[in-house]
Amino acid sequence: MKKTGLVSLLVVAGGFFLLCPFFLNAYVLRILTNIFMFAVITQALNIIAGYTGYPAFGNVVFFGLGAYGTGIMMVKFQLPFVGSMLVGSLLCVLFTAVFGLPLLRLRGHYFAIATLGLNEATRAVVDNLTNLTGGGMGLSLPLPYGTVQANTRFFYYLLLGTSVLSLLFSAVLIKSRFGFALRTIRSNEESAEGFGINTVRHKILSWMISALLTGMAGCIYAYWMSYIEPSAVFDMTISIKSFVMLLLGGTGTLLGPILGAFFVEGLSLLTWSYLLNYHIGILGILIMAVVIFSPRGFIAFLKDRLLFAGDPFTLKNREPASGRRPER
């Protein structure tokens, strides 16, 4: 499939999802909204884990910070949602700027474990700031204005737009010289330093971008649910699901996170609906089967079947050539 064909397919898919609220009921729209939310989270994870090669297992910390930043601004300071979302997103970026320098000097499983600890430590702090966050009792946000149907459509379009924004942002980023530097770091960090890349700066910026997108999803989730608590928004299950989606879709690809989100959430719904007593076991077996038969993800599977042959927009980006000198 040529690039023009893929773009046409994406346009058709975009048009379909834009029209979904006019012929689907609220239950199905809620499912799609949840899929779009995980597509954003997984796309954000792909930036730090897929393109840069740093497995941030505790990336859910930014989801929780975004949610609580929005909640505190709306409840304690009476800010509107847009202003609260801006504060919550910036909080995630600042948090990364503070902790990114020490943590990103670690590599591999050391970095992964450190991010897990960061999430649990942040969760404990939020749980104990009772006067500000409500502690274990949680925080109730103002209910959105309008009817239930109008709010369903509002959050559907909001997360659909955010998922499209994260996709376009990743597409631009990975084609840039900055994206080339990230892929160089993923391939061989020592070689990247030899090329003159400031690896610490690039890794921190990469994690900041990932934190920003994850935090935006958390901000929207808080207003969508109208109630948040530490155990829900700092839940490691969110990180686990996003990693599964990324691995199944294709690490370091643009469309992989979206395909993974649709597959895992759709599969979860089917197993929950028809195999209630065995849904977790059946879901695990099906995911293992996909990993066994397509270990490099859905995008690589499609590439092997020549559906997207020669399409740089969909396939995993090529590794940097050793003779090229990237941006310092």
Attribute tags:
15 helices, disordered C terminus, two-stranded antiparallel ribbon, mainly alpha, 328 residues
Structure description:
The chain has 328 residues and is mostly helical. It has a domain at 24-234. The chain has 15 helices and two strands. The protein has helices spanning 3-19, 26-51, 60-76, 81-103, 108-128, 130-133, 148-175, 177-187, 189-194, 199-225, 230-233, 236-249, 256-274, 279-293, 298-304, and strands at 139-140, 227-228. Helix 4 (81-103) packs antiparallel against helix 10 (199-225). The longest helix is centred in the middle third of the chain and has 28 residues, at 148-175. Mean pLDDT is 86; it is low at 308-318 and 321-328.
Provide a short characterization of the protein structure.
The chain is mostly helical and 328 residues long.
List the topology elements.
Blueprint lengths: L2 H17 L6 H26 L8 H17 L4 H23 L4 H21 L1 H4 L5 E2 L7 H28 L1 H11 L1 H6 L4 H27 L1 E2 L1 H4 L2 H14 L6 H19 L4 H15 L4 H7 L24
Antiparallel strand pairs: 1-2
Helix pairs in contact: 2-7, 2-10, 2-12, 2-13, 3-4, 3-5, 3-10, 4-10, 7-10, 8-10, 12-13, 13-14
Distance between the termini: 36 Å
Label the overall shape: globular
Q: List the helices and strands in order.
A: HHHHHHEHHHHEHHHHH
The low-pLDDT segments are: 308-318, 321-328
The biggest sheet, with number of strands, parallel, antiparallel or mixed sense and barrel status, is: 2 strands, antiparallel
The residue-averaged pLDDT reads 86
Based on secondary structure, the structural category is mainly alpha
* Strand proportion: under 5%
* DSSP, total strands: 2
| Lateral arrangement of strands in the main beta sheet | 1-2
Give the number of helices.
15
Please give the radius of gyration in angstroms. 20 Å
The share of residues in helices is: over 70%
